[in-house]
Amino acid sequence: SIPQVLLIFAKEDSQSDGFWWACERAGYRCSIAYTPESALECFLDKQHEIIVIDARHPRYFDAEAVCRSIRATKPSEHTVILAVAPQIQPGQEESSVLPLLNAGFNRRFFENSSTTACYNELIQLEHGEVCSLFKLRACNSMFTALEHCQEAVEITSEDNIIQYVNPAFERMMGYCKGELIGKELTVLPKSDKNRTDLLDAINMCIKKGKEWQGMYYARRKSGDSIQQHVKITPVTGQGGKIRHFVSIKRLCSENNKQVYKIHYDEKYCGENSQTESLSSRHKNRRKESIDVKSITSRSSDAPSLQNRRYSSVARIHSMTIEAPITKVINIINAAQENSPVTVAEALDRVLEILRTTELYSPQLGSKDDDPHTSDLVGGLMTDGLRKPSGNDIFSKNMTQIQSHLVIPATPNDIPPQIAQLLNNEEMWDFNILDLEAATNKRPLTYLGLKIFARFGVCEFLNCTEATLKSWLQVIEANYHASNSYHNSTHAADVLHATSYFLQKERVKGSLEQLDEVAALIAATVHDVDHPGRTNSFLCNAGSELAVLYNDMAVLESHHAALAFQLTTRDRQCNVFINMERTQYRTLRQAIIDMVLATEMTKHFEHVNKFVNSINKPMAAIEETSSNSEGCDCECPASIKNSPENRLLIKRMLIKCADVANPCRPLELCIEWAGRISEEYFAQTDEEKRQGLPVVMPVFDRNTCSIPKSQISFIDYFITDMFDAWD
User: Fold this and answer.
1) Helix/strand/coil (H, E, C) string of 71-83?
2) pLDDT-based confidence at 714, cuts 50/70/90?
3) Please, are residues 330 and 322 in contact by the beta-carbon 8 Å criterion?
4) Are the CB atoms for 18 and 114 separated by under 8 Å?
């Protein structure tokens, strides 16, 4: 197919002529429009593959607005849009391409009226993005073929969600498409005629990216079992990971009494398989959800079901196992061989638990039991989109979060009132709100100078105190003073708690100076540029940050990235500039890891790993020590000082510091509770205004009980974590 090109220029000039003649040279069909209105009308009529918009002269029309209006139409999903930007003048810094990308442009072309330059750009687009879009258009044809295919076809996601079934599948299984799409395979009833170990064999094969085929019994909607020949093919997507599974199913003849052998060897899964070996991540819970089983045996005189199961387990143990959890599951399977029935059933329950993806998240009871806890968990421990109703609107025009560099003013000497307050900063009862008032809402800079000096941060970083002052001011300036909770006072509060914990002997004995410096810096920057909204809100609103970070740890990723951007952008505040490269990389990684640890979706994972890797081993050793004479006292230290456990300690440290408000004196606790509630109230108000899903309905300023919400937060998140940390 020959690409069509639409040129949108307010006036014809050498640049528009360059693209026009380039289209002639390439054999493309070309149209030109002079106004946004005529451009949109022309595009809807011809649906061009390439659009070139003149972005050099904003006085004629807003190129970004034109692009957005085109992107708002359905046909534009198969269109590549190019922005023509003005040439960069000598000595001028190149501007960021992000505003153009956010407006919907695919590429930027700097002004060059040469026909050859325009031709080269168009040819590259044709062989790159346009070629890919032509392939996407062909998908409709492929689905038409699937609809008329005689074989039953089922397509599932990597998470085993049914995404497509064709009419042949509906006829074979007796279901309507609407009963299946969006459902997990686990909801479909399974036939009990299959060999119990077959799912293990199938999973072991397809999770390596290899094709599996064989016989199995499936249960139709009516309840009767039918024998099918099945081929399951993993399909890789971006990053070489398995994204889908395609199952092709054919009914076997009812008179066919042949017993098929499952070839879990070189025929389907061996090294010489015709199927390409794919590197992939595959969820073990697929074992519970695939309805592909078999009644195969090695002879007509079939062994007992129990013996067949054990021989399969033996074959699985002889294979290369990659994931540790798979090793654990197979060891438990082997342990079931000679176990009594009651033990085997208990181990089945263990396996069921292990196969879930939420190993560290406790399961709540009915949501009606405690709406405060339910809403807190839903709001704080989810990143992705909540399922919208038909009326939900996802705004793409959230206020862009600013990340500009603020030039710090030269700080005056610390006033006596502030200096007097800082005399108590080593105490847990230190009143950060008094410091907030005394510093005119700039407590982070003053407290940071005092704490960083106490820990010798400037000496470790080999930077001057003036550079540190500038850095603290830049970081503080990029916190939002308008936020009731997530402002620089909260950052100062977390920095104070972090420094307090770092003074404790058990922590000091576990960490090195680099760890301490990383913890102090991470605490300082951990919420920089926080917009006063949760991750779930940003994902539901389709914000630029959520798109940038793929709805995963959106804010925490932004805090960490922006902190380093602000620091390294100007020598005046670059506290890392004199560090040796390897040491800087180590410090940077430690800071990023700690900031990301403040994200709540992995809260229980961090806490449970800390308990299992540090609390329990240390308790066991100390108990042994109390019962033994002359034992080695260095054992507890060796547990804490391993690199893996130091990592867990640092994560736990900043997590406790981040949510330490309920552990502060009561008057501080009450003030912080009111501040965070006000942020949640404001978020609920905005969600209702924008028609977004309300993430935490209980935080309605007209009905919410702040004490109850805090009690739920303390019971669910705080108590166990601080018990473990203490």
Assistant:
1) HCCHHHHHCEEEE
2) very high
3) no
4) yes
Going edge to edge, which strands form the sheet with 162-165? Answer: 162-165, 152-157, 242-251, 225-236, 212-219
pLDDT tens digits, 273-324 = 333 333 333 333 333 333 333 333 333 333 444 444 444 334 334 444 346 6
342 contact partners, CB below 8 Å, separation of at least 6: none
Beta bridge partners of 4: 29
What is the predicted pLDDT for the residue at 503? Answer: 95
Which residue has 């099945």 as its token pair?
Answer: 230
- What does the pLDDT read at residue 289? 34
CA–CA distances in Å: residue 480 to residues 495, 518, 531, 627 = 17, 23, 7, 55
Whether residue 466 contacts residue 494, with contact meaning beta carbons closer than 8 Å, is answered with: no
Residue showing tokens 């709001």: 379
Query: Which residue is associated with the tokens 């098929």?
Result: 260
> Is residue 215 exposed (0-12), middle (13-18) or buried (19+ Cβ within 10 Å)?
buried
| Spacing of C-alpha 313 from chain mean position | 35
* C-alpha to C-alpha distance for 640 and 657, rounded to whole angstroms: 19
Interacting residues of 98 by C-beta distance below 8 A, sequence separation 6+: none
Kindly give the pairing relationship between strand 212-219 and strand 225-236. Answer: antiparallel
Read off the pLDDT of each residue in 647-667 and give the average, rounded to a whole number: 96
Please report the pLDDT score of residue 160 as a whole number: 82
Contact (CB, 8 A) for 115 and 18: yes
**Burial 89-103, CB ≥16 within 10 A → b, else e:** eeeeeeeeeeebbbb
Angle, CA of 243, 246 and 250, to the nearest 5°: 170
Annotated catalytic sites, by residue? 486
Least confident range from 66-70, 106-110, 201-205: namely 201-205
H/E stretch holding 84: strand 80-85
Q: Residue 450 gets which letter from DSSP?
A: H
Rounded to an integer, what distance in angstroms lies between the CA atom of residue 439 and that of residue 350? 56
Confirm if 374 and 394 have CB atoms less than 8 A apart. Answer: no
Asked if residue 488 lies in contact with residue 481, where contact means CB atoms within 8 angstroms, the answer is yes
Task: Give the phi and the psi of residue 618 in degrees, each rounded to 5.
Answer: -70, -40
Determine the residue type at 161.
I
Distance CA 362, CA 481 (A): 35
Distance CA 611, CA 608 (A): 5
According to the model, what pLDDT value does residue 255 have?
A: 31
Alpha-carbon distance of 205 to 199, in angstroms, equals 10
Contacts 24+ apart (CB under 8 A), 14-20: 14/113, 15/54, 15/56, 15/84, 15/111, 15/112, 15/113, 16/54, 17/113, 18/112, 18/113, 18/114, 18/115, 18/117, 18/118, 19/52, 19/118, 19/122
d(CA 645, CA 269): 39
As a whole number, the mean pLDDT across the chain is: 81
**CA pair distance 131, 189, nearest whole angstrom:** 43
HEC sequence for 172-210: HHCCCHHHCCCCEHHHCCCCCCCCCCHHHHHHHHHCCCC
Two tokens at 311?
């021989």
Residue with tokens 């119990």: 196
For the residues of 86-100, what is the DSSP string, one character each? PPPPTTPPPPPSHHH
State phi, psi for 19 to the nearest 5 degrees.
Answer: -70, -35
> Which positions ≥6 away from 341 have C-beta within 8 Å?
none
CA distances from 486 to 68, 221, 277, 347, 491 (A): 32, 53, 48, 46, 8
Cα distances from 470 to residues 370, 422, 461, 467, in angstroms, run 47, 20, 15, 5
